[in-house]
Specification:
The radius of gyration is 17 Å and the shape is globular. By secondary structure, it is α/β, with parallel strands linked by helices. Strands 3-2-1-4-5-6-7 form a 7-stranded parallel sheet, with helices on both faces. It has 9 helices and 7 strands. The structure holds NADP nicotinamide-adenine-dinucleotide phosphate. NADP nicotinamide-adenine-dinucleotide phosphate (NAP) binds next to helix 1, helix 4 and helix 7. The site of NADP nicotinamide-adenine-dinucleotide phosphate has 28 residues, from helix 1, helix 4 and helix 7.
Length: 248
């Protein structure tokens, strides 16, 4: 490892917000470990682009965050290949929307398992290393609907509200070890996750956003980079809404 270069592990970073976070951290001189669930050709291109453009190391680690052993493996592999973990971004997440009256137990449980239990699984495996090195930054991706609730998303908003409670409790537990834990709550961001929404739904959403546009993955990545950087060394246990002013 190069002197003073930080190492970041980002979950679910093959596409969408996670991919943009990996690029932004690499741009800011971090070695990046990209966790992916599904292997694609674009992943190898992403690794090549990051290494050539930003002159940092990029490691790809396969695993499903909902499976504890996979989380254990991705942390172990990252440390074996990149030397340490200074920054963990728990980004992997899914939606399975529907009204509660029609929601299956499987759809409720799978969203909690990936979004909330997945955050526990990876964090649980990273924390002992951060405690040992007496430093670390953990950034958990929540959502505005974890704060406000949203009809048709009881599973998703419960998982994202859970992430906020998890963030605040862990921040209190590990502050004395110089480990800072924060959460970013994106509003509506243009990725595959929101591409499934109809044009009419998107227009309705835009009318509720004071800045009158959906966010970009970069809007989120820049705030994550701030929380991962030395510029945020007196911030812990916070939830930062990045939502064009939706929640005030
Ligand atoms: P996305 O485009 O659907 O990408 C989700 C990523 O997570 C994919 O790379 C996916 O991998 C990965 N993933 C899903 N389940 C996983 C698992 N079990 N293990 C490992 N990786 C897994 O979504 P996004 O919009 O970028 O969302 C990223 C995060 O931001 C999520 O936590 C989401 O809840 C949150 N968020 C998004 C919005 C929004 O408007 N887009 C708003 C608020 C919060 P595969 O390719 O294998 O599926």
């Amino acid at each position: 490892m190069e002197e003073n270069r930080k190492v970041a592990l980002i979950t679910g970073a093959a596409r969408g917000i996670g991919k943009e976070i990996a690029i932004e951290l690499a741009k800011n001189a971090c070695d990046v470990s990209i966790n992916y669930r599904t292997k694609t050709d674009e992943l190898d291109l992403l690794k090549k682009e990051i290494e050539e453009k930003y002159k940092v190391r990029c490691f790809l680690t396969q695993g499903d965050v909902a499976i504890y052993e996979d989380a254990e493996k991705m942390v172990k592999e990252t440390i074996e290949n990149l030397g340490r973990i200074d920054i963990l971004v728990n980004n992997a997440g899914i939606t399975k929307d529907g009204l509660l009256m029609r929601m299956s137990k499987e759809d409720f449980e799978s969203v909690i398992d990936i979004n909330l239990v997945g955050t526990f699984n990876v964090t649980r495996n990273v924390i002992p290393f951060m405690v040992k090195q007496k430093s670390g930054k953990i950034i958990n991706i929540s959502s505005v609907v974890g704060v406000s609730g949203n009809a048709g998303q009881t599973n998703y908003s419960a998982s994202k509200a859970g992430i906020i409670g998890f963030t605040k409790s862990l921040a209190k537990e590990v502050a004395s070890r110089n480990i800072l834990v924060n959460s970013v709550a994106p509003g509506f961001i243009a990725t595959d996750m929101t591409a499934v929404l109809s044009e009419q739904v998107k227009e309705n959403i835009n009318t509720q956003i004071p800045l009158k546009r959906m966010g970009t993955a970069q809007d989120i990545a820049k705030v994550v980079n701030f929380l991962a950087s030395e510029n945020s060394n007196y911030i812990t246990g916070q939830v930062i809404n990045v939502d064009g002013g939706m929640l005030m």
